[in-house]
From TrEMBL:
Signal peptide: none annotated. InterPro entries: Rce1/LyrA-like_dom. The chain crosses the membrane at residues 17-37, 44-65, 85-109, 129-151, 163-181, 209-228. It comes from the Bacteria. It comes from Mucilaginibacter boryungensis. Keywords: Hydrolase, Membrane, Metalloprotease, Protease, Transmembrane, Transmembrane helix. The keyword Transcription regulation does not apply. This is CPBP family intramembrane metalloprotease. Residues 129-219 form the CAAX prenyl protease 2/Lysostaphin resistance protein A-like domain. The keyword Protease applies. One of its GO terms (molecular function) is metallopeptidase activity.
Length: 240
């Protein structure tokens, strides 16, 4: 494996610069997310613009990495044969089912989860095929680049402990989904953050995570669309 910028033998940016980059992720989303709310746009427009906020954030972090940190946006780069992608997309996809089972435990013990907000956005997303595909693609690409490609690697530069970057990045990724006010979604996204974080630390390949992320959301959207069109009660399903 070739060492890239961000490995232990490479010069690292100062802690302040790294922390500012991490804060930038959430400050950017908070500011522009609030502006969307104040704009009082219709739900469809708000949803589409929210995806462009993530796309813009990736661009901003890329510029920040090059100009302020003086290092690449993606610090880890390792190439694998095609069979690696098939193997791990399938295995990681199966692990998402395990994460969904664990996230449902509070419901089995009588917890009444709030699904109103999640279902509201789900109905909008699956109402149009182009929107369904657009959301699955942009979520897979932008969220993996931001939370695994950027955030996890910067935390890796801040902490000597191997586990802390994964735990912190998974927690912050889960916080991102707090707006659904759904405990199962929060648990599910935290577990997914752990799974993808450990995988990225071990194999340093962001592409397989992007592909898996896309397929999880895409299949969930298709199932939700089918259920809504045929008036079938949907079981709880995690999105990330």
């Amino acid at each position: 494996m070739e060492l890239n910028q961000g490995d232990d033998l490479s010069p690292k940016p100062g802690k302040t610069v790294l922390i500012i980059g991490i804060v930038l992720i959430f400050a950017f989303q908070l500011i522009f997310g609030r502006l969307l709310v104040l704009a009082r746009l219709d739900s469809l427009t708000t949803l589409v613009l929210s995806r462009f906020i993530y796309i813009s954030l990736v661009g901003l972090l890329y510029i920040y990495a090059r100009k302020a940190e003086h290092q690449d946006f993606l610090l880890w780069d390792e190439h694998y044969p095609v069979e690696f992608y098939f193997k791990w997309v399938i295995l990681l996809y199966l692990l998402t089912f395990a994460a969904q089972i664990v996230s449902a435990i509070p419901i089995w013990f009588g917890w009444h989860d709030n699904t109103a907000v999640l279902m509201k956005w789900m109905r909008i997303i699956v109402s149009r095929y182009w929107l369904l595909l657009f959301c699955a693609i942009t979520a897979g690409i932008t969220e993996e680049l931001i939370f695994r490609g950027y955030l996890l690697t910067r935390l890796q530069q801040l902490f000597k402990n191997t586990y802390m970057p994964v735990i912190i990045s998974a927690t912050l990724f889960s916080v991102l989904h707090f707006s659904y006010f759904n405990l199962r979604e929060i648990i599910f996204t935290f577990l997914i953050g752990i799974i993808t974080g450990v995988h990225y630390q071990r194999y340093r390949n962001i592409h397989v995570l992007i592909i898996m992320h896309f397929f999880v959301d895409f299949v969930a959207f298709l199932l939700a669309r089918y259920a809504l069109l045929h008036h079938i009660k949907m079981p709880g399903m995690g999105l990330f």
